[in-house]
Amino acid sequence: MMNDKKFDFPTVRLYVLFTLAVLCLRFVLPQNEPFHIALFYAACAAGFSPFWTSLSFFGTSLIFSSPVGVLLSAAQTLLLAVGFLFNAQCVKNGWKAAWLPPYAALVFDLALFVAFAPFTAYALPFTFINTPMIQKTGIAAAIFLLSAVFTVAVKAVTRKFLKCRLRGDELVFSALFFVFTGVGICRFFGFNAYMGSAFLVLLLFACATKDTSVFVCAFVLAIPPLVTLGLSPERFFFYACAIALFTRQGRLSAACAFLCAFFVYAYIDGLFLLPAAALIPTLLSALLPALIFVLIPAPVIRSLENKLIFYREKHLSRVAINRNRAAIGAQLFEISAVFREIQSTFSSLSVSDSENGVREYIRACVTEESCKVCPRYQECAKKDVAQDLEKLVEIGCLKGKVNLIDLPKNLSDICVNQSNILYAVNRQLGDYRKYVLDAENAASGRTLLARQAQGVSEILRNLALEQSEPLRIYTEKERALNIALLGAGVVCSEVLLMGDEENPLLSLVTYGKADVKKIAAVASYTLNATMIISERLTLGMDKFCCILRKKPRFDAAFGVASAKKTDSEQNGDTHSVVKIDERRFLVALSDGMGSGEYARRVSESTVCLLESFYRAKIPPETVLSTVNKLLAFSKEETFACVDIAVVDLFDGKTDIVKIGSPVGFILSGNTIKVLDSGSLPLGILDSLRPDTASYDLEENDTLLFISDGISQAFGSTTDLYNVLKGIPTGNPQQLADVLLQAAIDAYGGVAKDDMTALAVRLFKAA
Q: Are 751 and 709 contacting, i.e. CB atoms less than 8 angstroms apart?
């Protein structure tokens, strides 16, 4: 409640404004009818201090009322003050009818006005109401109704203005309160004073909102001069139109446009023919507001604009979305931490046995099995053959087994049971090799699981970071979109803009058979980015949700030509073109070693794994090492040469990975760039060193991957290069077909190996 606040500058300012409003409301009608009582009641009902409110109310009567009026005002002030004091006590005591004392005081105040206030009846068209008592009763009834209207308005202005969105009734009642106050300003302070204030309010409102609501403001501002002087309201609409047209070009432009409109009306009204005493105040009523408007510091204007935008918008939908995103992000972080712990656990479980401990163990076993049962064991022990036996075990660990030529000279001269020793050492080495192989397989499995856990952890962490970022607010752009779409004949009840400046995501709700091309065109023009409809969801019989994304700069065309080896049942080459997300796609070509069914299964498995991992957005290094490890686990020789390209359609950036594959090419106009590979195929070694590079593809560039069946047909890269120079690159399918036929012709018309050509051409999106 306001009466519980300490007196500070905002409170003092509020009571000063209240006093001025009371003063203005005393002059709404020529005989100072007490419309200010409605404001007195509304202020106390809104939480103003009854004491200070009464002081301001009664103080204005001392200045502008007759002795009878002062006595009447004193009685009215006392009644309302007592009524609200009783109201406070009733509220404290929990009395349900706490509203009754203020209402009773208001009724008695109006009864005093009807009974005792001096009043001359107005000459109205209906003679039966041209008596003072009837007219005063009607005015009293109007003041009683205005008390309720002003109560809503004062509460809205003092509690909610520039803090939250006002309800419809609050906006209407606040406008009505302003109209009554404006009429009082016109009558008390003068027409020019009101017009100057109204011009400044109109300029500030247009600058802060930058939308059609400025015409509503102009309508409200036009009513007081219409009521008091009969000034036609269309000029305010003309001023509003001039200001609105130039607001976005800056405050100076808007002020100049307003002054031009003002001088046009001044010329039409014959203002410049008036004497200086009347001309100068009228000119100042326009020049001073324009000057003040231009000189107001920019931070003040921005603060007002941000507050108006903020309180006019609905925020709960964004708050709910952001809260859900934050909760999902936090949960993803927790799950990511779990997989990170799994990765750490598997990595820490790798066991490395000490070689010295293994050698000592094998030597002890050999000594126990062969030497201690020998009659000459004690004699050998004295000659320190244990050291020679340890050397034999060391050689065995290096070679995998031992024979007679590996026996140290001292041991061969002394030992009479050499075959038993060699047998025992080799048997222990065999057991050790089996143990080491099992340990290595277990370690490889743990490493593979650790890498997968690490990849999943990184995916979840990236998703958590993405989801934790709150939605940005693009209120200005959303409003501009709504207005532009409405101007194009598309009605939207909701518009939501998400994403960043580079990749906007627009969602809107439309009605009827909306033209999606028109929606995309308007959105593209307003956002200054080429937008396309990516989804259209049905919400009801006549209600749809359209989702628009930024259109990529490039589109792609693909061409594939392949042939299996003659007399082979299956082609061992496999290719893939798969969409990763809205802006990237993956191109892959895998050549399984050899030909036939097994080679096909190897290349197909490789491509399927690559597709799945890349679509899951697992980091590329984890993808390649995992696929390599999985192929290496096979009991048979499972090798694959792989070409991978990830192409970004927004900027043409292309990441290319080549693993044991033949040369590839980037064909750009008359130039050809060779993509070579020096790495071994997948599945040969546990460690993998692929050839990676990034290229920026431009419009009409073509990326070409080929399998070794085609590259070997031409004998050398030079010959293949010369063939490519003679093939048109405009159609990627034609390029692949011609190259494949040239390779078959080079083999003499017989396909001596599986052959595949995969071409991708970028072109500018329409």
A: yes
Cα separation, 218 vs 239, whole angstroms: 8
Token pair in block for residue 638: 């499972």
Tokens of residue 190, six digits:
């003068």
Contacts of residue 677, Cβ cutoff 8 Å, sequence gap at least 6: 658, 659, 660, 661, 662, 663, 691
Q: Which residues contact 576 (CB under 8 A, 6 or more apart)?
A: 586, 587, 588, 589, 607, 608, 610, 611
Q: What is the DSSP string of 241-257?
A: HHHHHHGGG-HHHHHHH
Dihedrals phi, psi of 458, to nearest 5 degrees: -65, -40
Q: Are 57 and 105 in contact (CB under 8 A)?
A: no
Q: How far from 375 is each of 385, 420, 481, CA to CA, in Å?
A: 15, 14, 103
Angle at alpha carbon of residue 578, lines to 574 and 582, rounded to 5°: 170
Q: Exposure pattern of 273-294 as b/e (b: 16+ CB <10 Å)?
A: eeeeeeeeebbebbbebbeebe
Pick the closest to residue 703 from 752, 625, 648 (CA basis): 648
Sign of CA pseudo-dihedral 490, 496, 501, 505: negative
Q: Give the H/E segment covering residue 362.
A: helix 355-366
pLDDT at 725: 85
Helix axes 418-468, 316-348, angle to 10 degrees: 170
The Cα–Cα gap between 750 and 742 comes to 11
Q: CA-to-CA distance for 450 and 201, rounded, in angstroms?
A: 67
* Averaged pLDDT, groups of 10, the chain, 766 residues long: 54 83 86 85 84 81 73 84 82 74 86 85 76 88 91 83 68 90 89 91 85 86 90 87 86 90 87 83 91 87 66 53 68 67 60 59 77 76 74 78 79 76 81 70 65 69 69 74 79 78 82 78 87 80 81 88 82 81 82 60 68 69 63 54 84 83 85 77 55 82 89 84 85 91 87 88 83
Q: Pull the structure tokens for residue 161.
A: 């203005």
Q: In what order do the strands lie in the sheet with 554-563?
A: 554-563, 755-764, 702-706, 664-668, 671-675
3-state secondary structure of 119: coil
For residues 210 and 245, is the Cβ–Cβ distance under 8 A? Answer: no
Are the CB atoms for 743 and 714 separated by under 8 Å? yes
Contact between 339 and 460 (Cβ < 8 Å): yes
Q: What is the CA radius of gyration of the chain?
A: 45
HSE value, Cβ hemisphere, 13 Å, CA-based, for 521 = 9
**Residue 479 corresponds to which tokens in the numbers above?**
């409003």
Name the residue type at position 714.
Answer: F
What secondary structure, in 3-state letters, does 680-703 show? CCECCCCCCCCEEEEEECCCCCEE
How long is the chain? 766
Q: What is the pLDDT of residue 600?
A: 63
pLDDT of 624 reads: 63
CB 589 within 8 Å of CB 758 = yes
Partners of residue 563 on adjacent β-strands: 755
> How big is the CA angle at 536 (ends 535 and 540), to the nearest 5 degrees?
150
In angstroms, the CA 33 to CA 37 distance is 9
Helices (H), 472-619: 475-487, 516-527, 597-615
Amino acid 5: pLDDT: 46
CB 39 within 8 A of CB 22: yes
Cβ neighbour number for residue 318 with a 10 Å cutoff: 16
Q: CA-CA-CA-CA torsion for 291, 292, 294, 299, nearest 10 degrees? A: 170
